[in-house]
Amino acid sequence: xxxxxxxxxxxxxxxxxxxxxxxxxxxxxxxxxxxxxxxxxxxxxxxxxxxxxxxxxxxxxxxxxxxxxxxxxxxxxxxxxxxxxxxxxxxxxxxxxxxxxxxxxxxxxxxxxxxxxxxxxxxxxxxxxxxxxxxxxxxxxxxxxxxxxxxxxxxxxxxxxxxxxxxxxxxxxxxxxxxxxxxxxxxxxxxxxxxxxxxxxxxxxxxxxxxxxxxxxxxxxxxxxxxxxxxxxxxxxxxxxxxxxxxxxxxxxxxxxxxxxxxxxxxxxxxxxxxxxxxxxxxxxxxxxxxxxxxxxxxxxxxxxxxxxxxxxxxxxxxxxxxxxxxxxxxxxxxxxxxxxxxxxxxxxxxxxxxxxxxxxxxxxxxxxxxxxxxxxxxxxxxxxxxxxxxxxxxxxxxxxxxxxxxxxxxxxxxxxxxxxxxxxxxxxxxxxxxxxxxxxxxxxxxxxxxxxxxxxxxxxxxxxxxxxxxxxxxxxxxxxxxxxxxxxxxxxxxxxxxxxxxxxxxxxxxxxxxxxxxxxxxxxxxxxxxxxxxxxxxxxxxxxxxxxxxxxxxxxxxxxxxxxxxxxxxxxxxxxxxxxx
Amino acid sequence: xxxxxxxxxxxxxxxxxxxxxxxxxxxxxxxxxxxxxxxxxxxxxxxxxxxxxxxxxxxxxxxxxxxxxxxxxxxxxxxxxxxxxxxxxxxxxxxxxxxxxxxxxxxxxxxxxxxxxxxxxxxxxxxxxxxxxxxxxxxxxxxxxxxxxxxxxxxxxxxxxxxxxxxxxxxxxxxxxxxxxxxxxxxxxxxxxxxxxxxxxxxxxxxxxxxxxxxxxxxxxxxxxxxxxxxxxxxxxxxxxxxxxxxx
Lengths: 582, 248
Prior knowledge:
Chain A: Keywords: 4Fe-4S, Iron, Iron-sulfur, Metal-binding. The complex is a heterodimer. By secondary structure, chain A is an alpha/beta fold.
């Protein structure tokens, strides 16, 4: 298996072993894999879960998502823990015992404030648990002696539809496909009008057809399990509970396009799912559903490797994902050519979302009419929503496309709702005048994230959190996104701290539009959405923070002189600029 | 019925321009003496499209001219106020991202970033300076690397790989923390096989890669962009020569 030789996996092992990746290790790995030192160094620098200085014995990553982040319960838990353990956020304590950092959404949004400790999710955090964690760390208790239920990730499924209602026995999809034959199967997928569930909504049938028609030395099937959009956790559940249907969908795709090798690209935050997925793969090989001569069919050979990411939202973009599969930084490629013709190792490749493959398996079993009976004309079938934020029952809800936002809000027990963020920070921020709109590709599209904010929430703080997320996750390839996302974060901050003037709102609008229009990939095209939506639907959230001036400086002049006062040891009235009202 | 073969023509602003199959919009434009502002493109080197200055509107859609294939019948807008304004803002972003000390930079007058700012009528940097901390590498006896002036165009990376047959540079890091790195165990330029005559050492559009011991060979007033406009086509040859050391 090439899995063990994958650069990301080797670096993960080193990170586990030494708690960082030294320059020496970088050179050794480069030699071992015959790669340029610069490539290994660039990969270490790119992925958030690789460190160039040692992390602590307990390495803690608090999610900073609005739903599973350290402020989700109202208290600033990261500050609390760092104070109790006397360590600065973003640093390793001098004795090497622990380090505390922030990370982007870890997909635990139905479990409240959560963190990763040495890579393992720990959920339902509150002040009391922070106290207990403090004691356990100071007592040097190994993680396997911590309370087991802290690590038990339950799935909350509140509404089942087409995909979640029935369970398909392993192999049924493949047998149905072989009965239909290759072309008939593709026709069925095409007629189902299935569209990509990751959010972009490209026709799955067309994608498979284009890849099948593309010439190459080999074809590949890739499952995008890099569920990084904040507020999305439906793939976490699908990987845990419906892995067979997923692997079956990938195998069906392989048969249709003529692939022998497939990959699951699993986000690093979900590494804890790896043993389960590997066991499922093994089981399917034993059943003859993977490997050579699948179901006794000579020439039907296909197997799947799992590659685990290392903390990079951008790798959810399909061409960045392919770069990462190839052991490189996740920088999106220029398109065209598209992955269907020029993907993994330059060969024709289908990249589909977890939910898309599972839907494909069901369609092959039940037929396209069964699928098109649900949903709207342009958005057939169902969509799994990951609902989180201010509601009584956060969890997974499967709805037929076309459901209104109002209906969703009622069913998950949300009231006093100020705003809904559909599709995550990259999606759409809606106020209550838009709650009659429908979840559908032709109306409000979503990859699954559905975050609810009630009237007690500070919308501007949420938008700032999203802006910080994009600045952190920008790959840095193109000018507008690399610089623009940082400028947007700073521009919002200026307003939040009360230094903003009306001109700063216009400036946010201007830079947002530039980032949206001129960026290289989907990340940049959507990074300014929360700001643009916020300016349009929640202008008062910005306005109430403004000073009365048309323009103010980014800094406060008197505060900027603090360092000079310290150096000269003068802090009397004469050392201060005249303040208003003096 | 016979149909006439599709003429291989695109329209850029008010001009019909021929192209050969396989050419990009940028290739076709340069061949026809039409200037599309760019910083990360260099003829003969695989385009990447990272600076985004060459963004044009192709049938209403923004695309980078350097990476987009020309296709018959494309209606392209290039030299229009909206695009030039965006290009100016992108240039401002490149200025504030690093630390561009024009008056004291050896590259002044020979610098494409500076010339672009003049070309686009950029009168100030507008955005707050970011003041990143990026390491200077003065280890190499004849070539100096000042990363604070780097605009991450990756021309040196590509020139080294594609033209020099070496692999001296790469870009590492994410987002605003991206920076140019050297492909040696020490990370230092001195341990690389870079030579002053390499295209990678001469292609830098800004003052990030400088040939040592050749400061101000051409006096201010007689430098490339004192005598040429950046919008002139085919400046690359002069550009390369301008940065060339005497012994190469």
